[in-house]
Design a protein that fits this description.
alpha+beta
């Protein structure tokens, strides 16, 4: 799915298993943002984004675990992006 955000920004969401009924953020759903000003893929880092907070946010029951414009798929994607797009050993969800 692609969502225009206005101006030079947009967001797309990747569903790894689109036919699955109960999709799990960070395992089946990932979010990416686009910006002409910042390069192709980015997720702006929140003020409080320690590794522990990101891991906690990826599995949080709260839809906006870190800040209001971040959803769980953003948090989980950011964890993977910080690890050069590889699933880190301490990733909180199993595949």
């Amino acid at each position: 799915m692609f969502f225009p955000k206005g101006g030079n920004r947009g967001q797309f969401i990747v569903y790894l298993k689109p036919d699955k009924k109960n999709k799990i953020d960070g395992r089946d759903v990932f979010a990416f943002r686009l910006s002409r000003d910042r390069g192709a893929f980015y997720i702006s880092q929140p003020l409080d984004s320690s590794r522990d907070k990101l891991i906690e946010g990826c599995v949080s029951p709260n839809a906006h675990p870190i800040k209001t414009d971040w959803l769980r798929p953003d948090v989980c994607t950011f964890l993977i992006m910080q690890n050069n797009f590889e699933i880190p050993d301490d990733y909180p969800l199993s595949f």
